[in-house]
């Protein structure tokens, strides 16, 4: 359990090369099949980084496990992902919680939405879905992500499955 009764639904890792990382992470988490998407300005209607509008992009893979394991490769632009790799971050990048309303959840956790390190929205098939990252516990370098899962996801760009 997380503060105020929230449950950790996702554990995420930032990797420099998603294709190279998938076999190793799948061996640990048995997450196959992994659904893979590219997110960026062409998919997301709104993006912000450190309080300013931003055009960042990333490739992400979601496991078929619970909690969900996410691998993220930054592609372009400044983001919490590129910051992580630039400073030599390893291990867990963030934990995510599925919420109905990001604003309400951030208020309940005492993390005003205006202080989010990075946000994005509109990646669902119907233009819904959003996320917000918070540098929630700087003492332990913990980033929390609040995720409003889209009602319908667009089909993955590709699917990766273990072949052995």
UniProtKB/TrEMBL annotation:
Pfam families: Glyoxalase_4. Gene3D superfamilies: 2,3-Dihydroxybiphenyl 1,2-Dioxygenase, domain 1. It comes from the Bacteria. This is Glyoxalase/Bleomycin resistance protein/Dioxygenase superfamily protein. The keyword Oxidoreductase applies. Keywords: Dioxygenase, Oxidoreductase. GO terms for molecular function: dioxygenase activity.
């Amino acid at each position: 359990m997380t503060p105020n009764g929230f449950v950790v639904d996702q554990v995420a890792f930032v990797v420099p090369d998603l294709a190279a990382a998938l076999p190793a992470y799948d061996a640990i988490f048995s997450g196959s099949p992994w659904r893979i998407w590219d997110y960026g300005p062409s998919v997301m209607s709104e993006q912000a980084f450190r309080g300013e509008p931003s055009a960042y992009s990333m490739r992400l893979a979601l496991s078929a496990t619970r909690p969900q394991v996410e691998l993220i490769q930054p592609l372009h632009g400044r983001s919490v992902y590129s910051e992580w790799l630039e400073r030599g971050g390893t291990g867990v990048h963030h934990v995510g919680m599925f919420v109905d309303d990001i604003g309400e959840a951030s208020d309940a956790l005492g993390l005003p939405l205006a202080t989010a390190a990075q946000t994005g929205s509109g990646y669902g098939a119907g233009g819904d879905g959003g996320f917000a990252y918070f540098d929630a516990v700087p003492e332990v370098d913990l980033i929390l992500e609040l995720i409003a899962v889209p009602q319908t996801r667009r089909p993955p760009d590709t699917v990766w499955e273990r072949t052995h």
